[in-house]
Inverse folding.
């Protein structure tokens, strides 16, 4: 190599130095196991970090997925609308003097309640839509006069809609 090229180009100086080092090291012969031991030591020192999702095996991930799917199905079934409930052949919704009576709990529970109280309330028409009260955009903000049968613990047992106009 030309000495002038080495001064102008630092990469050329580095290449020349590495070439000389390579030639000197070729004369030395290290035992076979040295390279293997050096690579193992390097691997121990610089092991790649495991991600959080590598902590579980494939079968554990499958079990977790199955459990999540089962939970989702149970929640969806719990939220699904159910058919009208009948207790011993008696309907839980009846019409009484033009007003609808809706049992919110079983008739046995209503009959067994010793200290039930009747409470009058103005209920939003939209809250009574599931019970068949007609709702339109014109009357959606209106309230409906209703009487609620409430257990001693405060749980509503039944609703009687007095007037829907």
């Amino acid at each position: 190599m030309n000495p002038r090229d080495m001064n102008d180009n630092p990469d050329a100086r580095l290449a020349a130095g590495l070439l000389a080092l390579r030639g000197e090291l070729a004369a030395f012969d290290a035992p076979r196991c040295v390279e293997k031991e050096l690579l193992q030591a390097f691997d121990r020192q610089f092991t790649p970090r495991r991600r959080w999702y590598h902590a579980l095996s494939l079968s554990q991930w499958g079990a977790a997925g199955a459990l999540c799917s089962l939970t989702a199905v149970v929640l969806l079934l719990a939220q699904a609308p159910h058919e009208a409930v009948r207790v011993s052949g008696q309907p839980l919704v009846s019409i009484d003097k033009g007003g609808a009576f809706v049992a919110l709990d079983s008739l046995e529970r209503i009959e067994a309640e010793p200290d039930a109280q009747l409470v009058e309330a103005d209920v939003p028409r939209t809250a009574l839509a599931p019970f068949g009260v007609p709702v339109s955009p014109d009357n959606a903000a209106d309230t409906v006069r209703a009487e609620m049968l409430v257990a001693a613990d405060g749980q509503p047992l039944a609703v009687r809609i007095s007037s829907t106009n």
